Amino acid sequence: MMGLSNLILVTEDSVSMISEAASSGKKVVVIEIDRLNRLKNKCRHLMKSLIRGGYITTCQTNVLDQVVLAKLKDDTPPKTLRDSVIIKQSLQKLL
User: Fold this and answer.
1) pTM (2 decimals)?
2) pLDDT digits (tens, 9 = 90+) for 30-75
3) How far apart are CA 76 and CA 83, in angstroms?
4) Edge-to-edge order in the sheet of strand 7-11
5) Which of 2, 54, 76, 95 could tie 24 with a disulfide, CB 3.0–4.6 Å?
6) Residue 55 half-sphere exposure, CB side, CA atoms within 13 Å?
7) Residues 27, 87, 25, CA angle at the centre, nearest 5°?
């Protein structure tokens, strides 16, 4: 499904889905559903890191339509999270 999409929408309560979406090579919008403050510190740190790195965009439900339209109109290629490549390169240096 992700491979066929131009834009992926996920909610903030699924960190694994956010990571998978950010690794897909597609534009990703994470919908805030007022749970970020309740997420564990590790999850919160990951979310903030992905936002700062430009891998995901977040928005609240009241502006979802505007953010989706803006993302679809934006020609900028999405930034793709490539942790597996970084891990592989690091392991190769060790060997």
Assistant:
1) 0.79
2) 998 765 556 666 667 778 888 999 999 999 999 999 999 999 999 9
3) 21
4) 7-11, 27-32, 57-60
5) 2
6) 18
7) 15
